[in-house]
Design brief:
GO terms for molecular function: oxidoreductase activity; zinc ion binding. This is NADPH:quinone reductase. By secondary structure, the protein is of the alpha/beta class. Helices cover 20% and strands 27% of the residues.
Length: 339
């Protein structure tokens, strides 16, 4: 085995052409269901990276937004073997390492790993294999399956960076989480509770029991004047932006904060309320903090639906409706084209 790289039996031998893999191909401004599975060459590791055999890939709203010129569209790189307008979507992965590049000491072949790879640049997570910089991945907590782990990175780090980094959440504070049953929201509820906060969860009627099961006080947003039922909070984590920001401002104590993960304008905020927009960034320490919370049993991702690679278009259609409970995940571990 080379001193430069270490590999398992199914990793390509040095000097040989990369074996094929199945991958989902996206093209801009096409129907959400218009995703196709093609055979493309596996990626090749460079120093500081590992090659991951992907078992599952998380589906996030930005995956869909990027297909219509929003989200991360500006930063996407076309796949070199496809036409200039095509790419492999996705950033969240979970699987096992099959090869390590030169200089990698933290991981070895056979390690189970998960992470958010290269965001917002192209990662190609909807595929059987992905190369990832070691700073973008973490060992998978043993209590999670790969499907569960794939639903964790982007949503959990978004929640963590919004609540802990931007929101400066401390024990004993009251926190309102909007869209609390969604991908980011249900993890934000658990993270805030683990930090000692009292959590109020704004959600739809059908998800009231779900957010209560996470330990939150629930508020049904379909009720008229729902804000009148909320005692003042120190921090709001907003997923929506838009017209309902004015209602959210009314429930925040003077000196409190509203952190949004939407692109909404915050110019209308009262002067005694601090506001900030957060865009998730790859952060190795943050991912390790999330993994530690999972290890301790404080955070568990809820995966509501699992799709195959061939059904990736249906996954995009489902998440575009905006009423997903927990996470959607693509199972990539079907028949391989490598043999």
């Amino acid at each position: 085995m080379s001193a430069a790289t270490s590999r398992t039996a199914d990793a390509p031998a040095a000097g040989t052409a990369p074996a094929p893999m199945r991958a989902v191909i996206a093209r801009p401004n096409t129907a959400l269901t218009a995703l196709e599975v093609h055979a493309v060459p596996r990626p090749t590791v460079i120093p500081g990276e590992v090659l991951i055999r992907v078992s599952a890939a998380g589906v996030n709203p930005v995956d869909v937004k990027s297909r219509i010129g929003r989200g991360a569209a500006t930063f996407l790189t076309p796949h070199p073997q496809l036409d200039p307008n095509s790419w492999i979507p996705g950033w969240d992965v979970a699987g096992d390492v099959i090869e390590i590049g030169r200089g990698v000491a933290k991981f070895k072949p056979g390690d189970r790993v998960f992470g958010m790879v290269n965001f917002p640049r192209s990662a190609g997570a909807y595929a059987e294999y992905v190369c990832a910089p070691v700073a973008h991945i973490c060992h998978t907590p043993s209590r999670l399956s790969d499907v569960e782990a794939a639903g964790l990175p982007m949503a959990a780090m978004t929640a963590w960076q919004a609540l802990i980094h931007a929101g400066r959440l401390t024990s004993g504070q009251r926190v309102l989480v909007t869209a609390a049953s969604g991908g980011v929201g249900h993890l934000a509820v658990q993270i805030a509770r683990d930090r000692g906060a009292q959590v109020v969860a704004l959600t739809s009627t059908e998800n009231v029991d779900f957010v209560r099961s996470l330990g939150a006080e629930s508020v049904d947003r379909s009720q008229a004047h729902w804000q009148n039922s909320i005692h003042p909070v120190d921090l709001v984590l907003d997923m929506f932006g838009g017209d309902h920001l004015d209602s959210l401002y009314t429930v925040i104590r003077p000196g409190g904060a509203l952190i949004t993960v939407s692109s909404a304008s915050l110019s209308g905020a009262p002067p005694d309320i601090r506001t900030q927009m957060v865009v998730v960034s790859t952060d190795g320490q943050c991912l390790h903090d999330v993994a530690d919370a999972v290890h301790r049993g404080a955070v568990t991702p809820h995966v509501s639906r699992v799709f195959t690679l061939e059904d990736a278009g249906r996954a995009h259609e489902a998440i575009s409706h905006g009423r997903t409970r927990g996470k959607l995940v693509i199972d990539t571990s079907g028949r391989s084209l490598t043999g």
